Amino acid sequence: MKINVRIMADNNKPILAIETSNKICSVCLYFNDEKYSEVNHLNKYSHSKIILSLIDNVLKNCDTELRDLSYLAFSEGPGSFTGLRIGLSAVKSIAFANSLQVSMVPTFEAAALQIASFKKDGDHFAVATKVNNEEIYFQKFKKLADNYVVVKEIDIINKQNLLEHLEGDELFAEFDYDYKSRKKYFAPSSFFVAKWSAERGAKNLVNEIDFIEPNYLKEFIIRSKEKK
Fold first, then answer.
1. Is the entire prediction scored with pTM above 0.85?
2. How far apart are CA 79 and CA 109, in angstroms?
3. Rounded to whole angstroms, how far apart are CA atoms 81 and 76?
4. Which of 145-173 are b and which e, b meaning 16 or more Cβ less than 10 Å from the residue's Cβ?
5. What is the pLDDT of residues 160-200, one digit of tens each?
6. What is the pLDDT of residues 33-82, one digit of tens each?
7. 46 lies in which domain range?
8. Do 72 and 143 share a domain, yes or no?
């Protein structure tokens, strides 16, 4: 578990951001880029057990209570069906109990914001995550000034055609794939979910919490074994 805490004087209400779209369960209490508390827990199968304690952790780090929040930011996907449901359940519970609004943050765009923070201006890159064993979610971006622009909208492609879609761009993915530029695991942190929301999503806050759903992009199909 990694904990980052930077505390400075600030009177603004913080954002509580949650990222559970894949292996990392990440929670951030974000005031601004210089004042935040973030906790990241890497274990795909423990999100439901750990998420509430992570939320409690970041709140205590900053001596903050839920009623002190400005709103909630949720990494909406695409990603793991189970992980997204766990994160959204926590978000809905907190929003209902404390009359808070919710900012729905596109997971790949939060990832792009994070990647752009260490890339050179003009660099092209792609973000990808698994749909299943054969397919992946895929989107392309370009670093521009201190931010990013979307080069190719998010799509579902066959994993075997990844090289063709990359066209030489650098890949940031949550899975291993054997090719000449193989990358290690990558997923956005809740800090950049909060930062994206503060910069781009605060004007589109959701009040109707009942109707919030993750952005699955593809229907979840449960396959059962046929009885012989």
1. yes
2. 13
3. 10
4. eeebeeeeebeebebeebeebbeebebbb
5. 899 899 998 999 987 766 554 555 567 789 999 999 999 99
6. 999 999 999 877 789 999 999 999 999 999 999 999 999 999 999 999 99
7. 2-106+188-211
8. no
